[in-house]
Every structure is written in C-alpha cells, then in structure tokens.
Specification:
Layout lengths: L18 H11 L2 E2 H8 L3 H13 L3 E6 L2 E6 L6
Antiparallel strand pairs: 1-3, 2-3
Length: 80
Amino acid sequence: MAEPDRDTATGRFEPKYPDEVFLKAVQEYEPAATSEVAEAVGIARRNAHYRLEKLADLGQVRKKKVGTSLVWSPAVENTV
C-alpha cells in the first residue's frame, strides 16, 4: 500500500508545501526576507531557505545579498 504523500512512480515524498506557496509569499513581501517567507508558509527559516534556494536553481526566484541577509524576488517571467 502506497503512502498518501509518496509518489508511486518515483518513491519520493511529495513536498508538504507546494512551490506555489513559496512563490506567492515571495511576491507578497517582495523583496522578501527568508524569515518572512518562513512565517508566511508556517515553517522553520532553515527549511524556507532550502526551498527558496531550490526555486532559485530552477530560475523561479532571484536572490540578492543585502548586508548580511538574503532577499528574494520573483523571477521576471514568473508571477503567481
């Protein structure tokens, strides 16, 4: 019997929070601090940072260093 949050084809677990939730938070707070996105989604800052980095690798968000912090903004072609 397959687990409800596991992809039966790949065996990988599906993320509890879809990418769209992160993209919406980034768009709402633009430029969004990692902690703002984490609070909006309801997860730890470390987990939000991990997911935002993955979205940056996919070209869906951009990151910029401001002082000692990272801020995130939607990629130009990506709007939720």
